[in-house]
Predict the structure.
Amino acid sequence: MNFLAVVLTVITFFSTMAGGLFTLKYKSKLHYFLAFSAGTLMAIAFLDLLPESANIAIQNQVSLPIIFMIVLGGFIIYHLLEKLILIHSHSNEEGEHEHKFGVIGSSGLIFHSLLDGVAIGTAFQANFNLGIIVAFAVILHDFADGLNTVTMLLKAKSSKKKVITFLVFDALAPVIGAFSTFLFSIPEYFLAFLLAAFVGEFIYLGATHMLPSAHEMKSSKKTVLATLAGVLLIFILTRFLNF
């Protein structure tokens, strides 16, 4: 197990915790972080994950249209997961239903964080530099995961103890997910499929979740610039620093 991979994986724990605690204290600057993270996620999907998935597929004689179908499938699956989790929040206004939604929604976020960890481990198995940049993306995104977990539970009027408990579980999830992939080796051709699925996930999270949330909170030129800054950062890392 690579030492740097372990360090970056552990950082996801603190990133998630920081996002949750930040939500409990500050909200005024949150939209800038969400916009920046959205830019990094989408840039990583197109500039790193998809090219690496395609390269592995070509080397293993896997048809590229299959890779693109998996990207689309990943996008749709995460869309359906989110909608199935969130659908009750719009149809139920009673306190009891809101409480159930908070628990169900937060549990869904924990499962999603587990998959984030799997993305880190999978990326490191495919390519060391790719693992670094995917870990960077997950660290940024997990800040938002911690934020969403706390926000959802606070909206459901959960106790502070329950909020912190769910936040800790959410923070541990990506660590467990990443470490699980270090216990076994994934066949190279299957890496192409997993990376493609995570392309769909990252595009979905960036384009339909984090970016709209940022503009809903405060749409401005600075918010747009924050998104472009995220894209530019990943472009520089991938093109000029050989990541």
